[in-house]
Amino acid sequence: MQDPSGRKPLLTEFERHVRRSAGEDSEVRRFGAELLSQRNFPQGEASSQIPQDYIISVGDELAVNLWGSVEADLRLIVDRSGRITIPRVGPVMVAGLRYADLNAAIDQRIGQVFRNYRLSTSLGKLRSIRVYVTGFTQRPGAYAVSSLSTIVNALVQSGGPSAAGSFRNIELRRGSKLVSQFDMYDLLLRGDKSADRVLQADDVVHIGPVGQQVALIGSVNRQGIFELKPGEVVDDLLLMGGGLNAVADRTRLAVESLDTRNDIRIAELKLPAQSRLNLKGGDVVRAFNALDAVLPQHRQNKRVRIEGEVQRPGDYILPPTSTLNDAVTAAGGLTPGAFVYGAEFNRESVRITQQAQYERALRDLETEFARIQVTQKALTADEASAQGARAQSSGRLIERLRAVRPTGRIVLQIQPAATNLPDLSLEDGDRLVVPARPSTVGVFGSVFNGGSFVFNPGASLDDMLKLAGGPTRGADNASTFVIRANGSVVSAKQQSSGWISLSSGFATLPALPGDTIFVPEDLTRTSFSQEAKEWTQILYQFGLGAAALKTLKN
């Protein structure tokens, strides 16, 4: 509804209550209010289709065409006596005739004068009639409308029912007689216009008081406030709202009643068992979104993707209690070339946790860099220049680290010679990649000739490091680490027994296919940041690949 000036919509108390229940951003309005406008229901024009039962009356214009033995093209107005005057024929009484009988009546009169002719009659410009719109309407009063206007046209002229007016109890009165009982919902919901009668002069269109109003919100095709007639139930309300939408929970509804707000407040209805229950004025019915109700993990089927060295790679839907081995079995089992130890198992929930932890670590590192820059004081121009360079380097490092994204990989604790995966329960969206057995070991970082080298069974990590020329002078030997094919990390500090000696640890540790050895720079020997923490630990604790590490170095 709108205020009398038409400037802005006015909300009733019930509409404000419903909007609070549906959310402040919702536009839940009374059904029909926005549809009953002159844009959607234009006034009837003279060119509109004339109904056969239209009654000819004073002021109507008739178009009379004659051809044959006599020719004429006449536009005649019905005078106050209800007649038209045809030249050379005389007056013809037409007032009170049905439009369907008009041609025969005129033909009979002309036939008394002429023979061997043809006749065609139609209505031209229609007369205006005065009708009254009363009751609970926006603008009650008398209106001049076309003689082809109907109840709907009169409602549009008057602005439609007011906030207290009914869309479903509209009467057409002619004198003391009730001609038609019109329900606007028949037209808006079902396209039924049978009760929308054509108006006659001095007709009264009376709008009764609004009936019980009930709101329908949530996962339905049309949210709104609907007016119910006695006997209409939950099913009828859902039909008015276009039914439940595609994502709705079709097993239940919630009903908040005004008369129980201080008691049980909200009741739940089971569908379809309680779909025939009656509703009360002021009820707010909510349909639930089925997507918001997530089954617990132990009841969900698992959608997983299996790639690599299996017989039938692809996506599979598995029962709730399935494990990694069940997924491999569903994919037809492993191929002879599968390297189970290097299987990469990614999980979305783990990736989200890793991302949060990684970002927290980056914030701590950024804070540490900022603290160092603030506490260091430059006494000379050279020192100030060096500090500026260090600040720029710190910024570039942070940017590169932010570009790295954790993958959600779970390190599978299995032996290098394993032929089966562990019985780890699956989650929806898991991804398993079983690679072929690699034949190389990668050596990168601060070495003389980084690259991938052919794996030599029986060789130690120290032996593979020597193939790359060993660490350079600027290498941080004590921080050297190895990323195994299964995603686990072995560091020199774990193997050194408290004293820095690379060979004492890695010399006895065997190399495995797919290993990546990384020797970091000694940050304490550069001007990059004298008090920077060992940021490389942030990377390998998430099992990130050597390619990302190499990118950071370059």
Question: How many individual helices?
Answer: 13
Summing up helix and strand content along with how strands pair, one would put the structural category as: alpha+beta
As laid out across the biggest beta sheet, the strand order is: 7-6-10-8-9
Principal-axes shape call: elongated
Head-to-tail CA distance between termini: 67 Å
The fold-level CATH name of one domain is Outer membrane lipoprotein wza fold like
Question: Could you give a short account of the major beta sheet?
Answer: 5 strands, mixed
Binned, the helix content reads 10-25%
CATH architecture of one domain: Roll
The level 1 CATH classification of one domain is: Alpha Beta
- Overall pLDDT, averaged? 85
Structure, described:
A hairpin with a 5-residue loop joins strand 6 and strand 7 (141-146). Helix 7 (348-375) packs antiparallel against helix 8. The two termini are 67 Å apart. The chain is elongated and about 130 Å long. By secondary structure, the protein is α+β, with helices and mostly antiparallel strands. Strands 7-6-10-8-9 form a 5-stranded mixed beta sheet, with helices on one face. Among the domains are: 31-45 and 128-209, Outer membrane lipoprotein wza fold like, CATH 3.10.560; 61-123, wza like domain (wza like fold, 2-Layer Sandwich); 212-292, Outer membrane lipoprotein wza fold like, CATH 3.10.560. The protein has 13 helices and 25 strands. The longest helix has 28 residues, at 348-375.
